[in-house]
Design goal:
By secondary structure, the chain is mainly α. Among the domains are: 202 residues, Serine Threonine Protein Phosphatase 5, Tetratricopeptide repeat (Alpha Horseshoe); 87 residues, no CATH class. It is built from 18 helices and 12 strands. Strands 1-5 form a two-stranded antiparallel sheet. Strands 2-3 form a two-stranded antiparallel ribbon. α8 packs antiparallel against α9. The protein is globular and about 60 Å long. The N terminus is likely disordered.
């Protein structure tokens, strides 16, 4: 009561003072506080449109945010594949992922949901508000269209992860407030979600994006590559659209390949594997889509690949070893495969004390694919100590194998499909059997096998397991059915079950929104 009286007195004093001047009290009280920004008051100039899209790009970095001690969100996509294990075991959520005993309380799962829907919310706001902003010279309508295209690209990217992780998910396409009719959104079918993803990417493709550039923003090439990947996924499980979408995937991937052939210094494979994790080559040549990192904003987040307490960087003994290769997967590589060679491909079994000192044996293989020698140290290298590597999302290598796989499904290997597959093996310095030796079935598995070897530890393998419902068997080098396959990363192995084809929804999210029920099958 006393507080209300004080407020009333203060208002009366304020009005009395202002009445002595030319402005009325009511006019003063109706003015908007310029520091209290709302979506209605903010989106007024082209710079605001740029900021909205930039915020959506920044949202991608949830991928590398922490998920408890010695763990980060990206490990959700590696721990469950069976190709990785841990040296530390101090994070119960991460351990549950490795052992396939996770549930709706697992932090990584909750963080992925929050991160993706935060991106979607930002994209929705940009898509709705940018058209209302007047773009006058020197800004142009073409810039407006481009920015909306980027926002739709990012929304498609986020929904593509969401639908593959959880299946039916809420399809939110408008900015939300507590009074929105669909504030408690129900889950839409996967078919509906994929429809929006394709529509968004097709809109982005037609939005006047640059063909390819090194800024790290969406380009026509990145859009085509992502669209080919979406079509390939739709061709497989669970939508099982088959031939029509294998053709769409092949055709869209071939557009990128055709561009590369005409512009080999712009889009292509890097000649060596070391260039894939060379900081000065970010967003170039093979890197079609990456999450942007710089220590001034956010440092490279894949440091959990460092071995536990071994002096492989300038800082001496450290690291967590919370994601390391399983011996069975590492040993399944052909010994002639350059990707297996120490410090030449994806792994290292020796390194240099404190980054650039005496060479020593690590005692096991570790992931070298994301090791930034310029920042961390190497032979003759004085480390910068600033790890500004980006996180890979789509490399040109994947476009080649998307094309090879999809084209083969349309009737068997063709010369172009074989050439795309062979390019991956040529870089690995492997001899490829002649095309005539392959059947459609044997070529199919050959391409799958290259995907396991080429894209390990890049957040891709799990989604291949789900769309194919097949898993690479490190011992036989063949493929098992998903259900019943033994992941060899924990003890004597743990079997994948049908429920693992989807992740559970977060328990707290389901409590907040009753419209999300029922929970995905198999998770109570």
């Amino acid at each position: 009561m006393k507080l209300n009286k004080l407020r009333n007195i203060g208002t009366a004093i304020l009005c009395g003072a202002i009445l002595l001047g030319p402005t009325s009290c009511s006019d003063f009280l109706d003015e908007q506080d310029p520091s209290n920004l709302t979506p209605e008051s903010y989106y007024t100039i082209p710079d605001h449109a740029e900021a909205a899209v930039a915020a959506t790009y920044a949202g991608m970095r949830f991928y590398g945010d922490g998920a408890g001690i010695f763990s980060a969100n990206w490990q959700l996509l590696e721990a469950v594949t069976g190709t990785a294990t841990t040296e530390t075991g101090q994070n119960s959520d991460l351990n549950n992922l490795y052992s396939l005993t996770y549930d709706g309380n697992t932090g990584h799962i909750v963080n992925w949901w929050n991160g993706l829907y935060r991106m979607i919310a930002n994209a929705n706001l940009a898509i709705e508000k940018i058209p209302t902003i007047p773009f006058l010279a020197p800004a142009t309508e073409a810039q407006k269209t481009k920015l909306i295209g980027e926002a739709r690209f990012l929304r498609a990217w986020a929904y593509f992860y969401a639908v593959r992780l959880w299946g039916d998910v809420p399809l939110v396409t408008k900015p939300q407030t507590a009074t929105s009719e669909d504030f408690f959104s129900k889950r839409a079918s996967q078919e509906e979600v994929y429809k929006l993803i394709v529509e968004d990417l097709q809109a982005a493709e037609a939005a006047g994006l640059p063909v390819f550039e090194s800024s790290g923003r969406a380009t026509q090439i990145a859009t085509k590559a992502l669209l080919s990947k979406v079509y390939l996924t739709m061709a497989g499980f669970p939508l099982s659209k088959g031939a029509s979408h294998y053709k769409l995937a092949a055709d869209k991937a071939f557009e990128v390949i055709t561009y590369s052939k005409a512009n080999p210094t712009t889009v292509n494979l890097f000649p060596t594997y070391k260039e894939i994790h060379t900081e000065s080559l970010k967003n170039r040549l093979e890197h079609l889509l990456q999450i942007q990192y710089n220590v001034s904003v956010a440092a490279f987040p894949l440091n959990d690949y460092f071995p536990n307490f071994k002096a492989v960087t300038y800082s001496g003994p450290g690291g967590t070893g919370s994601t390391i290769p399983t011996p069975s997967f590492y040993n399944s590589f052909d010994d002639k495969d350059l990707r297996k060679k120490d410090q030449e491909g994806w792994f290292y079994t020796t390194y240099y004390t404190n980054g650039n000192g005496a060479k020593f044996d690590l005692g096991a293989p570790y992931v070298f694919k994301h090791f930034n020698q310029a920042a961390l140290g190497g032979p003759g290298i004085t480390p910068t100590r600033n790890n500004n590597l980006n996180v890979n999302l789509i490399r040109y290598a994947e476009v080649l194998l998307i094309y090879a796989e999809a084209q083969n499904e349309l009737g068997g290997p063709t010369a172009e499909a074989y050439a795309a597959y062979k390019r991956i093996r040529d870089r690995a310095q492997l001899t490829t059997p002649a095309m005539a030796t392959f059947t459609q079935a044997s070529f199919r598995e050959a391409v799958w096998r290259e995907r396991w070897y080429e894209f390990c530890y890049e957040g891709i393998t799990w989604f291949d397991m789900v769309r194919l419902r097949k898993v690479f068997n490190e011992k036989t080098k063949g493929f098992d059915n998903f259900v019943g396959h033994l992941n060899l990363n924990v003890g004597s192995g743990v079997a994948l079950q049908e429920k693992h084809l989807l992740f559970p929804l977060g328990i707290q999210e389901m409590k907040n929104n009753p419209g999300l029920t029922p929970q995905n099958p198999g998770y109570n």
